[in-house]
Specification:
One of its GO terms (molecular function) is S-adenosylmethionine-dependent methyltransferase activity. By secondary structure, the chain is an alpha/beta fold. It has a 7-stranded mixed β-sheet. Helix 4 links the parallel strand 2 and strand 3. Helix 1 crosses helix 8 and helix 6 packs antiparallel against helix 10.
Length: 248
């Protein structure tokens, strides 16, 4: 079994506060194409964002994450049960799950036995869905500063799995047929403090701080504020989502 690489426990609180929310349209689509709505599994749930979003559509949601710190920050309605568990060891019964989701996390364990666990627990007619997003988009001027921060400053500090995100999961070999045509946009209204809070949640930031002894945000803070303008001003931040869906 591959070693669990915990990139987010030290940032769990910020992860819960500043991660953008996935579009309701995505949740509705997954609910509509699911042939039954008894049980869904949100794998690598983090602080439970996708589990909460899909909870209204399913009788029960099991939300798992290998990080106890992440699960400790998770919350959801009464029909969501949070557990500490790895993707390849869900603890779920054979052929018990109608929908399996992995939101912005498949790249961390795509090379493990996770896909065999998917085959074991999913019911005939069930749906598997994994989605990912890369860099945000605000305005061309803001995007240039953020992309410099992402690529030039943090480039050497991203874990190698990040490359799978950069290609929209095109380099992940799925052992089952995958639909590759769905596109959704994730949008949120943020001020400058909320944007910088989000930029501070990345795994590469923690590695940069440990290696350099400084916050990388301090290097770009003035440039970012200059192109943003009034820090209290709210702007739309957008991420294109790439969604991979399989039907069993």
């Amino acid at each position: 079994m591959a070693e669990f690489k915990d990139h987010f426990s030290t940032q769990s609180k910020g992860y819960g506060l500043y991660r953008p929310t996935y579009p309701v349209e995505l949740y509705r689509h997954l609910a509509e194409i699911s042939t039954a709505h008894d049980l869904m599994w949100d794998c690598a749930t983090g602080t439970g964002q996708a589990a909460r979003g899909l909870a209204p559509y399913f009788r029960q949601v099991i939300a798992t994450d290998a990080s106890a710190a992440q699960v400790g920050q998770a919350s959801g309605p009464d029909n969501v049960l949070f557990r500490v568990a790895r993707g390849e060891q869900s603890g779920l019964s054979d052929k018990s799950v109608n929908l399996i989701t992995v939101a912005q996390a498949l790249h961390w364990f795509a090379e493990t036995d996770f896909f065999e666990e998917v085959r074991r627990v999913i019911r005939p007619g069930g749906i598997f869905a994994a989605w990912t997003y890369n860099y945000l988009k605000v305005t061309p001027e803001i995007d240039r500063v953020v992309n410099h921060y992402c690529d030039d400053m943090l480039g050497d500090y991203w874990p190698p799995e990040r490359q799978l995100v950069d290609t929209g999961y095109k380099n992940i070999i799925f052992p089952f047929t995958v639909e590759d045509a769905l596109q959704f946009d994730m949008c949120i209204e943020w001020n400058l403090a909320e944007l910088t809070g989000y930029l501070d949640t990345w795994s590469a930031v923690a590695r940069y701080k440990a290696a350099q002894g400084q916050d990388p945000m301090d290097v770009i803070r003035d440039d970012l504020q200059q192109v943003w303008g009034d820090p209290a001003k709210v702007k739309q931040v957008r991420w294109p989502l790439t969604v991979k869906i399989s039907r069993f």
